[in-house]
Amino acid sequence: MLHKLRALWAGPAPPPPVDAAAAAGPAVLPTEVVTEGLPPFVLRDHLRDSDGFVALDWEAVHAWASAAGDDAAANRGWTACGRAWLEHLGAQLGSAYRVDENETARLLSSLDPADSRATLDFMARTPRRILHVLEGIAEIPPWGKDALIVFDDDDLYYRYVSRGYPEDGEYGFSSGMYLREGCSYFVTRKDELPAIEPVIAHEMTHACLAHLPIPAWLNEGLAVNTERRLVPRPRPGVTPQQVHRMHVRFWNEDTIQEFWSGRSFLRSDQGQMLSYEMAATLVEQLGRLWPQFRAFAREASLDDGGAAAALRHFELDLGAAVCALVERDGDRAWSPDPRRWDASPERGAFA
User: Fold this and answer.
1) Contact between residue 182 and residue 61 where contact means Cβ atoms under 8 Å apart
2) Are strands 146-151 and 170-174 parallel, antiparallel or unpaired?
3) Does domain 2-211 have CATH number 3.30.2010.30?
4) Residues 231, 197: contact at Cβ < 8 Å?
5) Which own/partner contact pairs does 158-161 have at CB distance under 8 Å and 24+ positions apart?
6) Model confidence pLDDT, tens digit, residues 56-78
7) pTM strictly above 0.70
C-alpha cells in the first residue's frame, strides 16, 4: 500500500476546491433513502463534514438498516445509502465525477465510460479470485457493494486520506487505501487501468480479511502476495540480492519488534518497504504448508504478533523464522514480545 515518502499536512485538511458547475450538483441529489421493508432514511439529518469532505453517519445507517429484522432489507438499505453518499460526495468533488455501478461494485470517478466499465468488471471478478487464492481464510463482506473512489489528482487524494492520520508526522506515499469509516471502501488516484488493478487487488484482499483480528505483518503479507498473484507484473528497482543485504543491515532486536507490532509499516524510511517485503516472504514461506497455514491465519492474534498460533500450527518460533531470513542464529530477543511494544499493535491496511 505504501511505497514512497510523503509528508502529510500538519494542519487540518482544507476543503477541496468547489467546481462551479458542480455546486448545483446533479439535477436532484437524494435527500432520503426509501427501500422496501424500512421507513425512509432522511439523509440531511445524517450527512456531516469531515475535514472538508461530505461524510455519512454510518452508525445511524446501521441502526436504521438493522431495525428491518430482515437481512435482505437491511442489505438493500445499506447499499442504497452507500450510493446516496457517493452521489453527494461526487457533487462536491466536481461536475466530471459520477457514480457507476454493476451488480456487485460501485465506482465514483471521472473515468470515461469505457474505463469505468472495465474497472467495475475487474472489481466484480476480483473477490472471487481472492477467495480462490486464500481458500478458507478470506470472506466477502456481507453487506453492500464494493465501492471505489478514484480521485483526479494527488493533492485531492492525499487531502482526503490524511483525515485518518495524526496532524503531525511523516508517512509513506500510497497508491491506494482500504478505509473503514462505518462502511468500508477503497480509494486511489486516477491512472491507467493496469496501474489501478494491483491497487484494487491489494485493497480488496484487506477487505476480505477484515473479519480476522490478525497482526499487520500477516494482513499485509497476504495482501501483497495476493496482489502479485492476481496481477503479475515486473517489480522494478533493486534486485532480490540488494533487498536481502538491506534486510540484513536493517533488522535488529528493536526494529523487529516494530515489525511484529506493525509500527514498522508506518515508518518514513526504507524500513517501510522492508516491512512489506519481510511480510510477503514470511507469508510465502509459511503458505507452502497450506492446511497448517490456513489454520494459523484463522487463529493468529495481533495481540502477540501471531506467536502462539505459529507455535501451535507450525511448531515454529517466529523469531527463529526471521533470524533465518537474515542469516542469523535463532535469538529469543527476535521473537514477538508485546512487553517491548511502544503502542497498541496495528492490524494493517493503515487507515
Assistant:
1) yes
2) unpaired
3) yes
4) yes
5) 158/6, 158/8, 158/9, 159/9, 159/13, 159/14, 159/16, 159/52, 160/13, 160/16, 160/53, 160/187, 161/187, 161/351
6) 999 999 999 999 888 899 999 99
7) yes
